[in-house]
Amino acid sequence: MPVKTFRPLTPSTRYLTIASFAEITKTRPEKALIVIKKKSGGRNCYGRVTSRGIGGGHKQKIRVVDFKRNKRGMEATVIAIEYDPIRTARLALLQYKDGEKTYILAPAGLAVGTKLSSGPTAAPEVGNSLPLTAIPVGMPIHNLELTPGKGAQMVRSAGGSATLMSRDNGYAQIRLPSGEIRLVNETCYATIGQVGNAEHENVMLGKAGRSRHRGIRPMSRAVAKNPVDHPMGGGAGKTSGGGHPVTPWGVITKGFKTRNKRKYSNRFIIVRSNGRPMKNK
């Protein structure tokens, strides 16, 4: 999917790029598969701001996506490719032989009219959902489960794909898009292919208004604040006091490891995303 560029007739169109939406075949979602999304403004149940920089934005409706693909052995037909405002990937609308309609993430190359299926007997073709035991080694996959039967949790953003490297002792070695190599139960399901809309990374907002449409509010730089408002505030000029960058509450923001060293899932990580072997298993 290419992106559109514009002649720089105004400052906002100089760097602005948008998706072409050429693959979209249906502009309105299925009414039975949408849920109203309520906006929180970054506030919790007590009305206190817990996530800064959130507010406003265009109204959105949540598309209910089927991440489990439970209708094993039943063939479905792709009847539309749709846009989803709350995720980077496109959605494919499936209709099963019994008449039920569901949404799935649209993999690259999926076209309207394609027949899809799920289950251990499904063919290892783009868009089909299979357990890792039935997927040939070396194939690109997405929509990967972490816990059998829980539904896909990993590799769901636009252009993402993991690789099935090997299988041994009931576990499959998966290379994730981050470079991390992880063990996953071989009974977990995954979908064949790469997530579509890979050109999403080339889209540039180009102006502040497009961030506001997405519900992202501006935030002041820490060094521009007063000392009473931020640990890095105050001082003459653009100095930050010579200290390490921190949050307004004093937590280090660069290089500070936030992952628990005794986390249970550490034992399943073979190689971290930085290429180093995982310790403290």
Can you tell me about this structure?
With 281 residues, the protein is mostly beta strands. The protein has one domain: OB fold (Dihydrolipoamide Acetyltransferase, E2P), CATH 2.40.50.140. Helices cover 4% and strands 24% of the residues. The chain is built from two helices and 17 strands. The strands form five sheets. It has a seven-stranded antiparallel β-sheet with strand order 9-16-10-13-14-15-17, with no helix packed on it. Strands 7-6-5-8 form a four-stranded antiparallel β-sheet, with no helix packed on it. A two-stranded antiparallel sheet has the order 1-2. A hairpin with a 5-residue loop joins strand 14 and strand 15. It starts with a strand and ends in a 10-residue tail after the last strand. The relative contact order is 0.14. The mean pLDDT is 93.
- CATH class type: Mainly Beta
CATH names the topology as OB fold (Dihydrolipoamide Acetyltransferase, E2P)
Structural class: mainly beta
Architecture, CATH level 2?
Beta Barrel
Distance from first to last alpha carbon: 42 Å
- SSE succession: EHEEEEEEEEEEEEEEEHE
Q: How many separate structural domains?
A: 1
- Can you give the helix content as a percent range? under 10%
CATH homologous superfamily placement:
Nucleic acid-binding proteins
Concise account of the structure shown:
Helices cover 4% and strands 24% of the residues. The protein has 281 residues and is mainly beta.
